[in-house]
Amino acid sequence: MKAHKSLSDTQLILGFQDGDCGALETLVSRYKDKLFSSILFLVKDKFLAEDLFQETFLRIIDTLRSRRYNEEGKFLPWAMRIAHNLCVDYFRKVKRTPTILTQDKKDIFDVIHVVVNDNAEHRIMRNQNYDRIHQMLDKLPEEQREVIVLRHFGDMSFKEIAETTNCSINTALGRMRYGLINLRKMMLEKQINL
Questions:
Q1: Whole-model pTM above 0.70?
Q2: Helix (H), strand (E) at residue 56
Q3: Rg (CA), the chain
């Protein structure tokens, strides 16, 4: 797998299509945290997020095996669209929307692996900041929260966000702008410095 780490997404995809399962393993490990975090943030349920995450990669594998993938150089945004669409399909199926409040406010940050050599005090402060950010994001309207998650956790462009959420680029930009304004207001009100 070490030999695969220096390969581009396109090279890994071509390698997998030629029968190299290690290439797929590298591709999965490269993006699993971002995809899972985004799904979890949308569905607010760890077990459901795991199911949707697995379904996302099953669809990715099927598409790659059948050689129908044509988003060359844009693997992560393409994978994020698949994950987002599966979340939307799930909520349509059960005819409900995700709740704003979570039961375990640390779930999204449990899957983000940051390797930093610091002391216990810094880790505690970082975890408190994660909790504050998560609580503030949960207070945003769903459309604003969704754009911020797709932009920052999914590294999607505004064009890709607009396509994924079925809105115009200007609407996506506006939602991001108002979401960030609302986050700043909350930080000022609570005198939070991150």
A1: no
A2: helix 46-65
A3: 18
